[in-house]
Amino acid sequence: MLLDSGTSSSMLSKSKSRSDSSEPFKHIDWVLLLITSALAGIGIIAGWSERVAKGLDPKSGINRQGIAVAIGALVMMAIMSVDYRKLRPYAIFLYFGTASLLIAVRLVGAEVNGARAWFNLGAFQLQPSELAKVTLVFMLAAYCSDDRGQKLPYDRFIKALMILGLPLVLVLAQPDLGTASTLAAITMGVLLVAKAPVKHIILISVLSLASAYVVYNSPVLKPYQKDRLTTFLHPTLKVTELKNADGTPKLNADGTVSKVSNKDQIQQVNYAKQAITLGRATGKGFGKGFNTSSGDIPEQRTDFIFSAIAEQFGLIGSGVLLLLYLMLILRCLRIAQIAPDHMGSLISVGAATLLAWHVFENVAMNMGMMPVTGIPLPMVSSGGSSTIAFIALLGLVQNVHMRRYSPL
Amino acid sequence: MGNSMRAETSGIRLSILGVTVIGLFAALFSRLWFLQVAAEPGLETKVANTRIRTVPLPPTRGRILDEKGRVLADNRQGLSVVIDRNGIRNEKKRFDVFLSLSGPLNKTVAEMEARYKDVLYDPLLPLPLADDVPETMAIFLRERIVGYPGVDVVDSGQRSYRYSPVASAIVGYMGKIQKGSESTYSKENGYAPNDLVGIYGIEKSFEKELRGKPGSRRVEIDSNNRVVRVLDQIDPEPGYDVQLTIDIKKQQYAEQILNAEMVKRRTERPPGKKSLIDGSVGPAGPLFEAPEGAVSVLTTTGDVVALASYPSFDNRWYDGKTDGKTLDTLFGSHDGIDDTGQKVAIPNNGAPLVDRSISTQFAIGSTMKLFTSIAAIRNGILDPSNKFEDTGQWTMPDCKVGEPTPCDLKNAGGAVYGSINLSDALAVSSDQYFYTLGASLWLDTPVGSNALQSELRSFGFGSRLGIALPGEASGLIPDAEVKKALAKKGLIGKFEGSKYFTGDNVNLAIGQGLLGITPLQLANGYASFANGGTVWKPRIVKAIYEAGTPDLTFGLADVKNAKKVKDVEPEKLNQVILSDEMVEPIKKGLRGVLSGGTFGTQFQPSTAGDTFKDWAFDEFPIWGKTGTAQTGDATDGNDTSLFASFGGPKGEEPKYAVASILPKAGFGGQASAPLVRCIWTALMDEKNIPELPPVAPLDKSIVTPRSWAIPAGFDASCLEVQFKVGSSRKEH
């Protein structure tokens, strides 16, 4: 494919026209690529700063984030080299493949912090839910796109919701409320731009709010899970004794009653807020964050990396980071606008929604504005699966941009 | 490509999405700006607390001075090896660093790892790996500091006892906060969990005054827990200097002469019994065990001059770090005799941490007779000038055979004294005389008046005197209730505990039986008699000064120019009425004990006449009484040797009182009297005591058992007394 277009381009025409359809790699969106690279670079440096702050030799040990970025780059290249439109028939296989992984992880995944969400692949851990976000974007884009410009009919709207439903249920079962909310956000974004009728969107919004209310007040969520959701509103300590299915107290190995509390969560957010506040305007400098090294914040390198960056680089650094994300998202929306077809447009919208939701939820959570969920900061939080998935997704958006002059 | 209609609708919807995104980001930006730039100072301070750490600044501990201002407990700069915690957070790296240090520091990796994990050490401060290291180790490390990253040798305050081991039990020592006293030494009271506190002696009882007030320094720390800047500081307030009433020179002499006497007694044996049939002398008994003893020296105004206890210890080893095994080695052992009469090594040298001068109570034998006499005169049952016919044999009135005390009693050693008055009875220590008084004090006084017991209590016996040292024993005065309580505890037999027999009072009158009195109480009782009846609470701390008193010379504080916080005023416990009718004949008798002479109708050797034969009573008048208390089976080897005395320079009221109690050391005249004579010699002229220079810090790398040998150059010749046959006899 690449070879085909490449050869034809060079042989048939040496046109200076920007619309030289045979040279998709000439139409790489450099702004998008630059921002992607910048964010990936920040991710590597942020992980590095933690090692510096902890007094470890930054050169020793494997730079996992660097490896993830490298793998992501390879995946991105691979995705960019194939016209996304030709991948459309495979969307369904990708979708069910991911669903199978989500089922498999429930059965054979490694249990971490009470959730089965990871495959242990030796040195690396694969988190299928990260993959699910990308495949859902692609699947929805493939299914909902309609180049005739018609409004999304009711049956397709319902089917689109069913496409969301399968991974949503599987992710909720882990339980991973953060990813579930992300999948819902993606779907809403795609459906909006896929011209779902406004009344349908309003209806589904009302329905989801109502069901969220029902779920929240139903026994599906355990009390401590509810506490986690509301702690950011009322950061007061709550201790819950865990119970077995038959209502008897769940015991630890040493015979004490197993308890959970939101203490860690309150502390995490307090420390994160402190770190951000202490960064002031200019920050304390690379590797000098107290909270970065104190070990007071668990998940420092993953969920709370924003606080570490804000502490070290201040308002200027964290502001630049946010600006980069904003530019990235707006760039994706711009690509949606100029996409060669409706599917490309929806892919870009899905990516933009996914990025926006992740950044907002993660940064807001760091500042105590949103509940603590395990939603990483795209490409900056340490985490192989997430980083690779986001770089791959941006490769897909790049793919759309590259092919805006390419005939299918 | 899509048509225009599609593009149009999509365009609007994309714009909606775009605006939403910009709106969300605007929210994030404003919150970020609020937190990082516009946050209220209140929030900032609250937030900053966890980054600002308070580092405690320990106060400089006050010093302990002796009566002349000699610095008994001082603070000296020590050297400690510390390591920066940041370099050793990594477990593997830490192991490597500890391994490389284990040689130079002479510590195992496990020991250092245990310190690393010990919560007692402040995680904000560098971890101390070795405390108070020798200078050579410090130099070795400083020269190679590059090879040991993060390691530093720092100054650290160390308690230094300059005259130790002298007065170890009085000065005391410091140690880790002990279980059960955490509430006293709590954070609220200014203590950190790894602080050292006084746990023995004055260090303990004056902890509050000596401690001072800790300060604190608020510091801002960076991500590596390194101090970026000091925010503010509250300086610690140093503790007060505490001045004792003891004179370290006299204290030293008392300890050394006591030690010398104990060693000497162990080379001697009780003489064999003289046969009543043919006058032949039987074989001598086994060597005296003389395992322990104590001497108390007080002024008659209640100030402690010296308190010596044997065996003793060296408080310099008590730094909270010396392990029990080392201490066992240090205490050493001495030869003792087990139940079967075999020679055995007594480990730990018989509990050297017990200060026998205040913590152990003994039966006081005939030294009791002073108080029995006073009680008898006070209760109108004795006219001191009346002659009494001592036949050497006595039958107790109101006595049934089978009672704990035999009804037929004899004088000690079977002596017969003939016609004697009170003075004579005291000088020769007639038991029959005091048996009579004891029985009479019980039978001829109102029932329930407990006349003899009351007299003893009025002299401060039977309860703690309240000396400002931990561990004072109260003593024990037997009466019906005490006996009942003891029987209940199973300490005495049921029948014996059933009532207070006349025999008990007879025994009490000569200081035997259940009576328990500490050496301090005994000296204090004699002091009270000597000063005309004022019972003082023994005072060991004289004054308290503000910190910063300069030294006149090394180890000698200029107390005359010190800023006094307060004087510790002497405290009167009781006033005993003493009439001339009591004092004169008793003093005459107590002098007779020492001077010898003719008592009663015939010449009788007094009980300590030989010992004080050449004493210049005109120059330095002293009075005293011997005592021999029987404990366990009544063999001579088990006798407790006692001597209690008072006196002072001529022309003054008696200035000092001295008492000595030496268990299993022989008769009063044999062991305690020569010892007390030596002390009187020292009190008479201080020149008799060698000068005592402050000592250099102890080299704790050398652990050798304590030697109890008489130090070379120490003149113990005053202990040598040539006893005439029949003199310095056994009495009760």
Task: Give a brief rundown of this model.
Helix content of chain A is 61%, strand content 5%. In chain A, helix 5 (128-144) packs antiparallel against helix 13. Chain A contains 14 helices and five strands.
Written account of the structure:
The complex is a heterodimer of chains A (408) and B (732). By secondary structure, chain A is mostly helical. Chain A is 61% helix and 5% strand. Chain A has 14 helices and five strands. Chain A has helices spanning 2-12, 30-53, 64-81, 91-108, 128-144, 154-172, 177-193, 198-216, 223-230, 263-278, 290-294, 305-338, 342-366, 384-402, and strands spanning 110-112, 115-121, 124-126, 239-241, 259-261. In chain A, strand 1 and strand 2 (115-121) form a beta hairpin. In chain A, helix 5 runs antiparallel to helix 6, helix 10 crosses helix 12 and helix 13 runs antiparallel to helix 14 (384-402). The radius of gyration of chain A is 22 Å and the shape is globular. Chain A starts with a helix and ends in a 6-residue tail after the last helix. The model of chain A is unreliable at 1-19 (pLDDT under 50). Chain B is of the alpha+beta class and 732 residues long. Chain B contains 20 helices and 29 strands. In chain B, the strands form ten sheets. In chain B, strands 2, 3, 4, 5, 10, 20 and 23 form a seven-stranded mixed β-sheet that branches. A five-stranded antiparallel β-sheet of chain B has the order 12-11-29-28-27, sandwiched between helices. A three-stranded antiparallel β-sheet of chain B has the order 1-8-9, with no helix packed on it. In chain B, strand 13 and strand 14 form a beta hairpin. In chain B, helix 12 (369-378) crosses helix 15 (451-458) and helix 12 packs antiparallel against helix 19 (580-595). Chain B is elongated, with a radius of gyration of 35 Å. Classes of the chains: A mainly alpha (408), B alpha+beta (732). The interface between A and B is large, with 57 and 44 residues.
